[in-house]
Specification:
This protein is an alpha/beta fold. The chain has 22 helices and 10 strands. Helices cover about 50% and strands about 10% of the residues. A hairpin with a 4-residue loop joins β5 and β6 (about 220-225). The protein is globular.
Length: about 475
């Protein structure tokens, strides 16, 4: 049996340090470049025409926007229909509450082993670590997640968590952690080795945990999209199934699912459809021979209500977690997912993580973008990611007015990048450029003494040669020509 330990959740390095390390790793850059190019090509190949793609994108945007516009009512309808179907619904405002709910269910069942299908929300609340610290064995059944769990890591991509690993890396991991396994770089051998371990865990587990791709309010149905079958095993073999998802995953109608499903699979992995599409509407009924005897759903807020309250930032919640924006992002391609230091990397992480963690912990993320617009162009539900990034940059430098009673910040930790020094510099700059005499005086000084300026005056100058002021200003040259 493999040894499963809690992953390290403490990250003391800064965003700048992590990105510097990533950029200086040629092997990592090469691997990510090849992987992203492959995914981009796959996505392009599955849409018959740009007209079809744009039509689907408009439809997906309307479906998600309609659901969000009715979110409170749809969540109530979802709870009612799920309860009528025999599924128990739990509400959690914070990760701590979500983990406590899941642990309470496990305790009530006297369970000791949990098998988990792929779930980014469970990563968000760090459920595995919470349970392992309480002596509950929790094993990932998605192959990529299982690999990085063995290596005590977090996912580096929301769809392909082990995309940064090579066959050599996995061969070393399996030899080290799976007893009796010899070093072998053959991919088929590695997959079969992992499957052999996981099959036993499926039957030994007391509890199965999964995420949710779409929760249908109309019918009280939980939809799961996957390729490996581990999600189906995790949700049907153990007697108890616990699903966990964010409150934004609700859709109004069952007929809303097929267009979103088509967009999700084609945008994520370049597939027309995935291997498995699971629809769960109730526990095992009398006379049925398989399925869980008990089903629970944990609906998590964790900052989503904060995003929902702002009409522009609300668009962040339209995300269907396809990862297309990540695959097309030039920044992500060069630094990988771990450099972001958050569960959700890439463009979607830059606009979602500030709501989940607060601006103090994510203040550098909105600025980690070239604003090339690729993320917004490929998003299957038309989230205006560049516009939201600009908005978050503004929010991050707003002056701290928390002491003012009438002040209601948009984001937790708003103003985390505010600098009184920088604020004073910009005020001085505005004064200089609004006064012709002051501007002329500064120009005179710059043309005479500008070459004495330090070459690395700003962080921008660390990787660039700073421009040097000309010996004569434009005004001087025009006056000399007219003389």
């Amino acid at each position: 049996m493999t040894e499963i330990i809690a992953s390290s959740t403490t990250n003391t390095s800064t965003f700048a340090q992590r990105t510097t390390d990533a950029v200086n790793d040629p092997e990592l850059r090469k691997n990510f470049r090849a992987a992203m190019d492959f995914l981009i090509e796959k996505r392009q190949s599955v849409f018959d025409s740009d007209d079809e793609l744009q039509r689907l994108r408009r439809l997906g945007n309307r479906i998600r926007s309609r659901a969000l516009s009715k979110l409170p009512q749809l969540l109530q309808q979802l709870e009612t229909n799920l309860t009528n179907n025999g599924i128990k619904v739990h509400w959690a405002e914070t990760p701590e509450q979500a983990n406590a709910i899941i642990y309470q269910i496990i305790e009530q069942k006297n369970a000791s082993k949990v098998v988990k299908g792929k779930s980014m929300v469970s990563e968000e609340v760090e459920m595995n670590d919470y349970l392992i610290e309480r002596n509950i064995e929790c094993v990932e059944s998605d192959m990529g997640e299982y690999i990085i769990q063995l290596d005590n890591e977090k996912p580096s991509h929301i769809i392909m968590p082990a995309i940064h690993k090579t066959a050599e890396d996995v061969a070393h991991l399996f030899k080290k952690h799976i007893p009796g396994t010899e070093y072998n770089e053959d991919v088929d051998f590695l997959i079969q080795t992992g499957r052999k371990v996981l099959r036993k865990i499926f039957y030994e587990a007391d509890i199965g945990v999964s995420g949710v791709n779409f929760a249908v309010a109309e019918t009280g149905t939980l939809c799961l999209v996957e390729n490996e079958g581990n999600g189906r095993m995790s949700t049907t073999v153990p007697d108890v199934h616990i699903a966990i998802t964010g409150i934004e995953k609700v859709v109004e109608l069952l007929s809303d699912v097929p267009p979103l499903y088509s967009l999700l699979t084609r945008s994520a992995t370049g597939q027309e459809v995935t291997t498995y599409f699971n629809m769960i509407s109730s526990p095992r009924k009398e006379g049925e021979h398989d399925g869980p005897r008990e089903v629970h759903l944990v609906l998590l807020d964790n900052g989503r209500s904060q995003a929902y309250a702002d009409t522009q930032l609300r668009d962040t919640l339209n995300c269907i977690r396809c990862g297309a924006c990540i695959n097309h992002c030039p920044v992500y391609t060069r630094v990988g997912g771990h450099a972001y230091g958050t569960v959700y990397p890439g463009p979607i992480g830059k606009i979602l993580s500030p709501h989940l963690l607060g601006m103090e912990e994510t203040k550098d993320l909105p600025g980690a973008s070239s604003l090339c617009g690729a993320c917004g162009e490929v998003c299957p539900v038309k989230i205006p990611i560049p516009d939201i990034l600009l908005r978050l940059r503004q929010e991050s430098v707003h002056p701290d007015r928390s002491g003012q009673s009438e002040y209601k910040p948009t984001l937790k930790g708003q103003g985390a990048k505010y600098s009184s020094k920088e604020h004073s510099l910009w005020r001085t700059w505005a004064m200089v450029y609004s006064s012709p005499r002051m501007y002329a005086f500064i120009s005179f000084l710059a043309t005479r003494f500008g070459r004495l300026m330090p070459r690395r005056l700003t962080p921008w100058g660390k990787a660039r040669t700073l421009p040097q002021p000309a010996r004569k200003s434009l005004h001087q040259m025009v006056k000399e020509r007219q003389a």
